[in-house]
Amino acid sequence: MPPAQFWRDPALPFVESRRACRSRACYRAHSHRTWSIGVVDGGRSRFTSLGVSRVLLPGTLISIPDEQVHACNPAAGGDWSYQMLYLDPRWLGQILGEIPPRRVEVGRDPVAYAAFCKLNRCLFSAASPALKERHLTGFLRAQWWRGEPLEGEQTGEPGELEAARRALRDADQTIPLDDLAAANGLSRYQLIRRFRRHLGLTPHAYGLDQRIDRARALLRAGLAPADVAQTLGFTDQSHFQRAFKERVAATPGQYRRVAVDG
């Protein structure tokens, strides 16, 4: 099994899955627009978010809201195996009848872990989209949520940053920091401090996260990595590949490939 495999289906655009086996790839602190639910299959990893850190052991489940800055990496010198679902938060709210609490939650529940593994085997199989959707919605409704909130600071974004965040979400190219600050009535240093305080990232890092989110969408649509890099204003292919791998723990080419079992 390759170190990282991805599953997605155009018939189910609200969900994507990955599984990683004995991976040593590391993430930098990042955020994305999808709600993430994952399990640790083997090894030890360290999850960090806004200054809070916790070791995750095999059998651990974790739920991470969209836009939550985080990183999860193998213990020093080691590797780990894990599975992760990425869900459209609007769709998730519709399935559950409400948006879940916006906090990281962690738990170790053998029943929930086994149910997650069964679901992901179904997603990676040749089963019909209808069957996969039934399994997914059944899992979410039955298992949400058996974890405990991660103690410590959680994302608390003031409304004053929404205009700046929206501009960065919508931009295909880098927005000069001075322009972004002026458009929000702040100095560049005020803007950086507020982003760091409330989001855990600089405006530049947050903007890169948004462009990598768009890169994932373009790769899913079938664009070649070189075309994606040019479309999103990366200086060259190596710059794009480095930024992508830091946030996805896979190369654009690896991400573009889809795995189906059986």
From TrEMBL:
Keywords: Activator, DNA-binding, Transcription, Transcription regulation. It comes from Alcanivorax dieselolei (strain DSM 16502 / CGMCC 1.3690 / MCCC 1A00001 / B-5). This is AraC family transcriptional regulator. Pfam families: AraC_binding, HTH_18. The keyword Amino-acid biosynthesis does not apply. Residues 161-258 form the HTH araC/xylS-type domain. InterPro entries: AraC-bd, AraC_XylS_family_regulators, Homeodomain-like_sf, HTH-like, HTH_AraC, Tscrpt_reg_AraC-type_HTH. Gene3D superfamilies: Homeodomain-like. GO terms for molecular function: DNA-binding transcription factor activity; sequence-specific DNA binding.
